[in-house]
Amino acid sequence: MNSTLKFWAAIAPSVLAVAAIAVRAELHLARALEVRLEVRPYDPMDALSGRYIAAPLAITTLEIGALRNECDGAQPGDSVWVALEPGEPWWTPSAVLCAPQAGTLALRGVLRDRSDALWTVDYELERFYIPHYAADPSAPTSGPRPQIIAVVRIDEGGAGLLSDLLIEGEPYADWNARQPQPGEQR
Amino acid sequence: MSKRLEALERALAELEAEGRLSGEQRELVVQRLREVWNARRVDFASVVAAFGGVLVAAGLLYLVGYNWEALGKLAKLVLVFGVWLGLHFAGWRLAERGEYPRLGRAFTLAGVLAFGGALGLVAQIYNLSSHYPNAVLLWWTLSIPIALVTRSRAVLVAVLALALLWTAWHAGVWLDDQPNDRDRDWLANFPLLGAAWAALLCALVALCERTSYADFAEVLRKPIVPLAAAAPFVLAFHEPWHGQPSWWSQASEAGDPALSEHLERLKPVWVACSVAALALGAASARTRAPHVRIGFGLLVATVLLALLTLLAPSWLPLVANIALFGGALVAIALATRLSRASLASSGVLLFLAGVVARYFEYLWDKLEGAYAFLSTGALLLGVAWVFEQRRRSTRARAQESKP
Question: Is the confidence metric ipTM above 0.95 for this complex?
Answer without folding.
Answer: no
